[in-house]
Amino acid sequence: MTSLLSSSSITFPIKTNQTARIINDVHTEVLVTGFNDRIFVILTQYGKVGSLLRTTLDSPLPTTFHSDASSSTTESLPLTTTNFLLGSYSLKYQVYASLITSLIAQDNPKETREIIVGLALLKTQNKIKKSSPNDHTINLNNDGGDDDDDTTIDKELFHEVSAMIRECRVW
């Protein structure tokens, strides 16, 4: 009797990669799992899945345009649509989900799977941010007022997360 399953002819259909780093003295983890129809990304500082968001690309490739003020060409990130599946609405989480989807599109412009993102990030610590001589945050409101935790993104965390996502490629 011959075996119907051969270890050399069948590969496990789910690819998973993960990484962890200490960013701003906080343990931060990224787990990326690729399924046939979607990519699941978890970015957590709590060790939990957190809020779930679904993102899709509205434009398949980054677009380029010419600025009237100069002859240089500027490349923009692809447009994304983000839906909250679980958890409360957070502008910060929407930005991170769009960033993750845009990174995947930049790395593989032919990627068509939807992206499910689980985010559980610590709130920005205002006492650390305000005591710093250099402002290392991005205020999403652009109103010049006080930054609240939902509209402030730490630039270092933002850049480190980008690098971590790229390390965990499954696309």
UniProtKB/TrEMBL annotation:
Origin superkingdom: Eukaryota
InterPro entries, per database record: Proteasome_assmbl_chp_3 (IPR018788), Psm_Assembly_Chaperone (IPR053720)
GO BP term (any one): proteasome assembly
Region (Disordered): 130-151
Name this protein carries in UniProt: 1033_t:CDS:1
Organism: Ambispora leptoticha
